[in-house]
Design a protein that fits this description.
The complex is a heterodimer of chains A (223) and B (232). With 223 residues, chain A is mainly alpha-helical. Chain A is built from 9 helices and no strands. Chain B is an alpha+beta fold and 232 residues long. The chains are: A mainly alpha (223), B alpha+beta (232). At the A-B interface, helix 3 and helix 8 of A face helix 3 and strand 4 of B.
Chain lengths: 223, 232
């Protein structure tokens, strides 16, 4: 009964409807340029911790990001780009999340622990080659849902920690959530690192399943 | 007297813009999209600003060791106050006048220990001692309709201009002391602007003039492409 319900819900729907594709591909230039302009800003003070109290646990104090990874020519340019594109990134996220909420797409995309945790574990076991066959799944498996949901949260944390750094006095309560101004800088940079890890893993998985690129370009066949 | 083609200020602005465009360093900042978004961001910044929102007062233990608190000036050598230094307060004020350090020190003193936020990303903490700019504004009868305040210095012409609301914030001081001692030359002696609600480059050191203005002007870094509002 549940299965037929689920099938009926997605009857006639493409795996990747155009709003999903649009917002997905918009992320590519937006995240790249946000990372580049962010690293341009970071290069002005490539340290973590306040003056006179650098965090001892951070091993790369004073090591600037490579020049090729920086975008915006100089600090003021990097800031202008970062604060301009940040709005587009937020707008893109709002469109994406609204679409998912209004069209019920979240049901087949987001990680719902009760439904997906078993599948995610089985998938992990499969990837670790401890299991011969992958568990059956529809659009996404549990591990995919976990990764995609986590990355939405991650971008949200990036936006919030970024705002905390941007307005440490006016938005002091945001800064407080991240352990103050210098804490928010740590979270913001660590978030970039995690986004990079996600992107590498995502690209790796896409290369292993090249048909998904086509689906994300054309929308795929109607269910 | 014939009407000049342009005022001195217009000429200076034009020349500065020309220089900026010619160097190309900030050409990207002048392009349509970034310019438009910059204007948008400034509106958001001004909307976020609340006059009653204070930078957190921090305990003495939070103070940054004084030699770890960065300082800079744009002159080739450390700017030294000219003999007979006084602070000139003018523009749209009822009673333009000058203040000596002693006169400022006789006014109501404010002490605050707050976090400093540099545009580069670092933060540091110091205690600052001085007069609230709003008290000085009151003493000279600053026109409540003047929406901008400009600060000039003897550091090779370093300057900045602010929105009135931030300038009259209760944590915006004309500071003559830091960490319990008179302001050191590298931190802007004899008097510097200090505020909990602006980025470091907005806080002019070695102040010579405070002008209440009708028109918004620029600043040393602002004219090169840094944000004009620069609030935190």
């Amino acid at each position: 009964m549940e299965t037929t319900d689920r099938e009926a819900r997605w009857q006639g729907k493409r795996p990747q409807p155009w709003p999903i594709r649009l917002t997905h591909w918009a992320n590519v230039p937006l995240l790249l340029l946000m990372a580049g302009s962010g690293l341009e800003i970071f290069a002005a003070y490539p340290r973590l911790g306040p003056r006179g109290g650098l965090y001892a646990w951070y091993p790369w104090q004073g090591v600037p990001p490579p020049a090729w990874a920086q975008f915006g020519d100089w600090l003021a340019g990097g800031r202008h780009w970062h604060f301009a594109l940040g709005w587009l990134l937020v707008l893109n996220g709002v469109v994406y999340l609204s679409y998912m909420a209004l069209r019920g797409e979240w049901r087949r995309r987001l990680f719902l622990p009760q439904r997906d945790i078993r599948d995610a574990v089985l998938m992990l076991v499969y990837y670790l080659r401890l299991r011969r066959v992958a568990p059956a799944h529809d659009l996404y498996n549990g591990l995919q849902r976990l990764a995609y949901s986590a990355v939405i949260l991650l971008v949200l944390v990036e936006v919030l920690s970024g705002l905390a750094i941007y307005k440490p006095v006016q938005l002091w309560w945001l800064g407080w959530c991240f352990g103050g101004y210098d804490g928010a800088r740590v979270v913001h940079l660590a978030g970039l690192g995690l986004l990079a890890v996600f992107t590498v893993a995502h690209l790796g998985m896409v290369l292993l399943h090249p048909r998904t690129i086509l689906t994300m370009l054309t929308g795929g066949k109607h269910a | 007297m014939p009407k000049p083609l342009m005022t001195r200020r217009q000429f200076v602005t034009l020349a500065a813009t020309g220089t900026v465009l010619a160097t190309g360093q900030t050409a990207s900042a002048q392009s349509g999209f970034l310019h438009w978004m910059g204007r948008w961001n400034e509106r958001v910044e001004r909307l976020l600003f609340r006059a009653d929102r204070l930078g957190a007062e921090l305990p003495p233990a939070a103070t940054t060791p004084v030699d770890a608190f960065p300082s800079y000036f744009i002159s080739k050598t450390m700017p030294v106050a000219p003999d007979g230094w006084v602070l000139k307060v003018g523009g749209r004020v009822a009673r333009p006048r000058t203040f000596s350090v002693e006169q400022l020190q006789h006014m109501a003193r404010t002490d605050m220990r707050v976090r400093h936020h540099c545009v580069e990303g670092w933060s540091a903490v110091a205690a600052w001692h001085g007069v609230r700019l709003r008290d000085v504004a009151e003493a000279v009868g600053a026109d409540p309709q003047a929406p901008y305040v400009e600060f000039r210095s003897f550091d090779a012409g370093y300057w900045s201009s602010w929105d009135r609301e931030s300038a009259l914030h209760r944590q915006t001081l004309l500071a003559y002391g830091m960490n319990g001692t008179p302001l050191a030359p590298n931190h802007g002696a004899p008097v510097r602007l200090y505020s909990a609600v602006k980025l470091g480059y907005k806080m002019v050191k070695y102040v010579t003039e405070v002008n209440f203005l009708s028109e918004r002007t620029g600043g040393y870094w602002e004219d090169q492409g840094y944000e004009w509002f620069g609030g935190v």
